[in-house]
Amino acid sequence: MQSLQDKIIIVTGASSGIGERIAHHVANQGGFPVLLARRASKLKEIVQQLPGASAWYACDIADLEAIRETFARIRSEYGPPDALINNAGFGIFESVSDTPMNAFQSMFDVNVLGLIQCVKEVLPDMITKQYGHIINIASQAGKISTPKSSGYAATKHAVIGFTNSLRMEVKDHHIQVTGVNLGPVRTNFFDTADPEGAYQSSVERYMLDPDVVAKRIVQSLFTSKREVNMPGWMNVGAKLYQLMPGLMEVMLRNQFSKK
C-alpha cells in the first residue's frame, strides 16, 4: 500500500458501519478522509473523533444533483480527490411479489446510479492526473443470488459489472479500480434489510466485523488489487456456484431460504 499521507479520500455512506471505520483507518494512516452521508449530526460527531484533518458533507447519494454539487464543493475547497470509496448502499429482503416498485427504484438510485454518478465526478481529475483509485463496494449477493433478495442482488450484479468494465476502461490512465464483495457484516444494514431479525439470527455466526472489513479495504488503497472478497469460504462458494449453479441451488436450498 502506498502511503496515505495527505491523500484526499472520499468515503460515501460514512455515518456508520463500514464507512465510519474506513474513515478512522484512513485518518489513522495520515490520510484526509472526506465523509459523505445524509446524517449531518452523525458526521459531525465522527469527524470530532478522528485524528488529524478531515471533512464532512451531508449528501443524499440517491440525489444525483446533490452529488454533483457536493463533489464540486469538495474540489473547490480541498482539491481533486485521490481516491473514492463507494460504500453507500442498502437492501430490502422481501419476495418480488411483496416488494413495492418504489423500493426497487430506491435501491437502484443509491446502490447503482448514485455510485456511478460519484465515479463520474472524480474520473475527469483522475484522468488528468493519470492517478487515482476507485473502490466500489458490491456484495457476494452479486455473485450468488438468493430468494428474497432479488432487488438488492440485481443492484450488486450491476455494480460488479460496472466495476469490471470501468477497470478496463481506465487501465491506460493508471487508475486503479477495486471491487469489494462481502458476506453479511455486523452493521445497521439489517435494520432496513431484515427488520424482523430472522435472517440476521440465522447468519449471526458468519457475520464479519466491520472494523476488520474496513481495515482490509484501506489496505487495498493504491494497490492493483482487483477484488476484495470476504469471507474467503463464501467466495469459494461463489466460484462453485458460477460453475454449477443448478447443483449449488439444490445443495444449498435450505441455507438460501433463511431470509
UniProtKB/TrEMBL annotation:
It comes from the Bacteria. Keywords: Oxidoreductase. It is an enzyme of class 1 (oxidoreductase). Pfam families: adh_short (PF00106). InterPro entries: NAD(P)-bd_dom_sf, Sc_DH/Rdtase_CS, SDR_fam. Its EC number is 1.-.-.-. GO terms for molecular function: oxidoreductase activity. Belongs to the short-chain dehydrogenases/reductases (SDR) family. This is SDR family NAD(P)-dependent oxidoreductase. It comes from Pontibacillus salicampi.
